[in-house]
Specification:
The protein is α/β, with parallel strands linked by helices and 362 residues long. 28% of the residues lie in helices and 22% in strands.
Length: 362
């Protein structure tokens, strides 16, 4: 087996309603690719499962059976969807997979191919996460790599949703050479952090984006993004895509319709007959399903991301939100409630920091 290369993936979400066949298929594609390219290990950066409070028996059994029969070593740590308790990694469906998968349920580091990899599972409170990250940073070297599961400032949650600029999580000033993280489903890089994204698409708000996985070479320290669709060539089955298209761009995207679930974002309100004509045309072209939604007044570009603004503090962000609010709610009451909630959240986060201050030494 090739000890120099590993596959990095995330957010497989086994148990997502009506998608079990597709998620297991995506794992089969990655396993097959690993065997064909003599790769030994596949790292899942959290969210192997979808529902943190319950996993259906057939889902758990299918995942277990797949991992038991896999000839590749699978390694996973908890993401937010895996954790039954928001502030603990102790209870998760990963626990029952310990005999067929390497489960890391604590802060951990290991050496592979001459590189030290650090593992930091999902932490619910961002303040706590940054506190732990700072402790790890003191022990890491500039050649080390961090594997984690978190939302980072400046990353696109989904292609046609929001550009997240109000997170406090950032990696620019950390010691780590680079960071790979699960949590957001779009393949993207923000500074030294890279999201492999989910290996297949799941929801309409993921837009027209590429889905795949990363192959990382520990020798030359390079990475390559592999499209799941390309890796699956020769397979009898291909998971359908969930694609969102702006109505203004529909003519240019008609070749993507067949065999996929389509959502059309309307820049203007249409009557029922007009919408029915669009749906009928797309069904005729092979769409599995067609939905429509009206584009927000704030979002009118083909790449639907919120305009980047640096609002600063949560209070400043909330103030900007209230300015754009069209409701008749009492603004002063909104500010008062926001201050009370923010203060309570900050006090709770500080308590968690004090409880978790020693976690990085585990």
């Amino acid at each position: 087996m090739n000890m120099s290369k590993i596959i990095i993936t995330a957010d497989i979400h086994n148990g997502l309603p009506n998608k079990l066949k597709d998620t297991i298929w995506s794992m089969e594609v990655m396993s097959k690719y690993a065997l064909e390219h003599d790769i030994k290990s596949i790292f899942v950066l959290g969210d192997l499962f979808h529902d943190r409070t319950s996993v259906e028996t057939n889902v758990l059994q299918k995942v277990y059976e797949f991992l038991k029969s896999s000839r590749v070593s699978w390694i996973c740590f908890p993401g937010n969807h895996d954790m039954f308790l928001k502030n603990s990694w102790d209870i998760s469906p990963l626990y029952v997979l310990r005999d067929v998968m390497n489960v890391i349920d604590k802060i951990h580091h290991f050496d592979l191919g001459g590189i030290k990899f650090w593992v930091l599972p999902f932490i619910h409170q961002e303040l706590t996460y940054m506190k732990v990250l700072q402790e790890l940073d003191k022990r890491a070297s500039k050649e080390d790599i961090l594997l984690t599961h978190i939302g980072v400032c400046g990353a696109v949650m989904n292609e046609c949703f929001l550009l997240k600029n109000w997170n406090i999580v950032k990696f620019e000033d950390t010691t780590f050479e680079r960071v790979y993280s699960g949590h957001y489903h779009c393949y993207q890089s923000v500074g030294k952090l890279t999201y492999p994204g989910s290996p297949i698409s799941f929801r309409f708000d993921e837009g027209v984006v590429d889905h795949g996985f990363i192959v990382f070479d520990t020798v030359d320290r390079t990475s390559e993004f592999i499209l799941t669709a390309d890796a699956s060539k020769g397979s009898d089955y291909v998971a359908p895509d969930y694609i969102t298209i702006i109505d203004k761009d529909l003519k240019n995207r008609l070749n993507m319709v067949s065999g996929n679930h389509i959502k059309i974002m309307l820049s203007n309100e249409l009557n029922t007959n007009q919408i029915d004509k669009i749906k009928a045309m797309l069904h005729k072209r092979g769409a599995l399903s067609v939905g429509t939604s009206l584009v927000s007044k704030q979002i009118q570009e083909p790449t639907l991301v919120y305009k980047e603004k640096n609002f600063g503090s949560p209070k400043q962000l909330f103030t900007e939100f209230v300015k754009t609010d069209d409701t008749k709610l009492n603004k002063e009451l909104l500010y008062e409630l926001h201050d009370n909630i923010s203060q309570e959240a900050e006090e709770r986060a500080l308590r968690e920091i004090s409880n978790d201050a020693e976690i990085a030494d585990q």
